[in-house]
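#struct-help
A.M.: can someone run this one for me? Single chain, 223 residues.
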Amino acid sequence: TNHSSQFFQADKRIQKQTQSTNKMNMNFFGATLLLLLAPSLTEGSKRGKEMDVKTTFTAPHEIHQYEQTKFYDEPKWECRFAALGSTHLRGSDSSTATGGTTCMACRNPGGKYDNALIVEVKAMYKRANWNEKDEANNKPRKHCIFPGRGEFWTCFDSNLVIEPDSDWLGSLKDKPIYDAEGLPLAEGADPDDGVCYPGSLAGDIDDNGATQPDGSQFGDEWS
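D.P.: on it. Structure tokens below:
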């Protein structure tokens, strides 16, 4: 009986030591896991705050389907590739544009009083008959992109274009329908003679407070 009692007590001591060791191991595992997760949690929280603060901007003018975009005066434009909908928009290197839809964002890099650049958009949804390509009646639309007034986005995977805010123009149009003095073309004039509203006049129009997804919200400002 004495031997049985000693064995029982020894067994209880072993059980307590085992429980204590298991508890220490669990505490060590938990502490190690927290240390490993801490950078990820911190980075995730930081990224969330950055997304909340930096990725907001005012609404563009239009987003719509396109068939073809044609840029006039190509050497005057400044363009970059970006991933729309990704967690980070990068600069001119398309390899850093991760996730989302691949797009090309182009801006007019001119000075405040320089003239607008023109991009022409062909869009099937503008056709009177979807299956009929009739550019005589459904002419491609030309858009005027002014310096410092946002980018024109062409997205490849989704076949969508994003036109920059044009609210700042007020009653004026972002179309080449003016003469050199900034007056609407005279009735009967050839539409092909139209130009964008002159930069010498557009430069004096007040900013309307619009913000553009130009990359600066993501730490990738134009160089």
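A.M.: thanks! The longest strand covers residues 78-84.
D.P.: also worth noting: Helices lie at 2-54, 199-202.
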